[in-house]
Amino acid sequence: MPLELINKGLKEVNDRKYPTEKTLKKQIKELKAKYNLKTHEAYEHFSKNTDNSTWRTLKPKLEAYWKSIDATVLIDVAKPETNGKQLNLVKLNKIQLTQMGVEFSTFEPTITGLKKSILDATQQVRTHFELENFHFYYSQTQGNENKIIKTAHLLTTGGAIKSKVSLYRPNTKNGDPRMWFRKLGELAVAGDQVAIIIFRNEPYLINLSKTKLSDVLLNKEHPISELLNQYIEANTSVSKELMLKLKELAKSPFKALRKGDTAIGYTLETLLGIEANSSKLPDYKGIELKAGRSNKTRTNLFAQVADWNISPCKRSADILEKFGYERGDDFKLYCTISTINENSQGLSFKYDKNNDQLVELFKKKEVVAIWLRSTIEK
């Protein structure tokens, strides 16, 4: 069960001996003072003694560890209170779904919406529908005669309720996308956070404000548990198949089938039965493969510069000049940016829901650069 995998992940996190981000900064400060080191020298000294590696190798491990700690605090459902603070059930459920690999969107019904049977199909919901090839509002004509009705399901702690979803764009209000789920009042009240999961081209609704998913998952026969497990099985069959093949290949060394920079990738693809081609589509049934000669450096899965036309900083050099630091005789800016915490340069990410943008911030206030969600998605 997914819950078992999560518990295993919790144990792995707790078994590690890395310091927290706050403790690391304190240790670096002490090393600089004790041995009269520069900052980058202190980090190298720490890396050598901690992991017998370089800072460049250890840094991504630490960042992954810190992120796992943050997730662990929220997903440790056996301890609903952490540091005296009651965890938010909706946030806990969202993290649960995310760690299980479930694609979902959420909406919040209003008092007026429940009375008039109207829900706004927000950008988040529309994008979700498009990704799942469920519905495309941009190609739908306005008017009640163009309304589309599909089967839907409302999953409650007491069981499943069959429903219908209406998808339409009215002639009024500039044809803003609308939707409505019949019998929604039996699932949620105004202000609740409701998740939509598309499975086999049908939407399933779960009230994240009223349902504790970690408890429900313990009952394999519950409709919510059945849905999530079926969803995971259907969406991970290819990755499981690939992993089995990779594990089999990893049992013994194999020689490269050609020479040059493309030798490793070509050899792996050949051993997996993938014919050589010039296509830019993912290599293995929708999964992109990356192969290299060494594990000492991170591999880029994709890269995308900011949308400079709408960003305060108009080029990468502007960001370097404003937030970079001296390292020896050079001026550098090597850092990882997260939505969880600010990094040592004061930089962090925030998703702007209203404008559908990823925003890089300095000290959580000053906008540095902006990425459109649609650009990143493409």
TrEMBL record:
InterPro entries: MvaI_BcnI, MvaI_BcnI_cat. Residues 245-365 form the MvaI/BcnI restriction endonuclease domain. The lineage of its organism: Bacteria, Pseudomonadati, Pseudomonadota, Gammaproteobacteria, Alteromonadales. The keyword DNA damage does not apply. Keywords: Endonuclease, Hydrolase, Nuclease. This is MvaI/BcnI family restriction endonuclease. GO terms for molecular function: endonuclease activity; hydrolase activity.
